Amino acid sequence: MSDETLSISLFLADEADTIRLGEELALAVRPGTAVALVGDLGAGKSTLARALIRAIADDAELEVPSPTFTIVQSYALRFPVAHLDLYRLSDVSELDELGIDEMLSDGVCLIEWPEMASDVLPKASTILLRLTHEQDGRRAMIEGSRRHIERLERVFAIRRFLERNGKSSATRRYFSGDAAYRTYELVRDNNDQYLLMDWQPQPPGPALHNGKSYSEIVHLARTVEPFVALDLYLQSEGFASPEILALDMNEGILLLSDMGRAGVLDADGAPIEERYIESAACLAALHDKSMPQAIPLPDGTGYDIPRFDADAMKIETSLLLDWYLPHINDGKPTADSKRQDFFAVWDRLIAKLDDVEKGLVLRDFHSPNIIWQQDRPAPRNVGIIDFQDAMIGPTAYDLASLVQDARVTIPPDLQARIMERYLDIRRKNPAFDERVFLKAFAIMAAQRNCKLVGAWVRLLKRDGKPGYMKHMPRTFTYMRAVLDHPDLAPLRDWFSRADIDLNSH
Asked: Which residues are registered as beta bridge partners of 383?
């Protein structure tokens, strides 16, 4: 991506416009960003900085004093924010004591009167915002790298989307980001609160097999269309998912109902038995539905749900080969012979899935993606929020992801009750074959756990997120449980040949 400097010019009619610009900058800045605020006295620098800090804090009453005399005011927010006023510095050497580099290592700096620091601020990560008086208002000139300006332009595009849909006076706050290309905002309008999904198309990534990238092979959604189609399908069949209140398919922007924050875990992070059991009942109701091959979209086109095919299953399990095995073998790559042996085992296991029930696989039906809907009748008491990557495949996969929740320890007795609730409902369907389903459950649980043990290491090694490694012992506990199934003997034997001690975690 080019490091060329681009610019945006905005007219701010009044103080409210200046505050709104500060709030929108709060949606665009990331740790490592410096915002250099330039302007005469009274140009609005402090007003903008105060609005930005309060927006990141999501606290309209937060005390934000001027740093004129203290030089630096620091705020421990979603990420650290330092508000600096360099007006009283007499020499550039005094900058060394402030430690701006350290502040930018994991946080954001807002710098008033930044001229003295112009030679030390990193150009690629600095946004220059110049405020000048114009008529009865102000002119804001914003300069920055392409990535900064494109991010701001996206923020402004969302503003225009909200204006077109009757939310011109709404406030916006960062909510979460579950991927580099998909983020969520809280939108508040009067006493109502919504979620806004900002989904920018995802590049496919490097080709790995037959000219396809990993995301293409495993059928990860790259645009907003799958989410829209599957959301409309779930609602039409009586399930609880976010209501789409407004959308722009081309821009990838959706305004959604806010389903709340109640999940299936208690305050200590332990599973709430009733909610897990009702989630199993919701899955059973979903799996009893006949799944259409294509779902109509609002623009008149249709969405064809991809298949959870052998290539997808095998490349997911390959995370164990690519990340976990090198991790336990001093960084040595996995030998080709061991890889071929592993995939030969999975070819045999996948062949055993020919006769199992196929249907909609939500893919990640577990605690982070279930919102409890108190006082709603079943199955709408279980809110489903993550389904854009859904496929047609063995329905047992989703039950495995719930019973063996990757992020929560589900005790064996609770696992049994969750399973029994699901099976008790499915047994009422004469076409349901419990023995074949349990075979599919064991195979798909093993497939998912092979993926996860590699994913935890990838998050550590590639993404610098060591916290996920705490899930490794649980994942192996779940793995050991399903490897007792007789159909998984070939995989159990492979672990032995690969010198993986299943009891060492």
From this structure: 240, 371
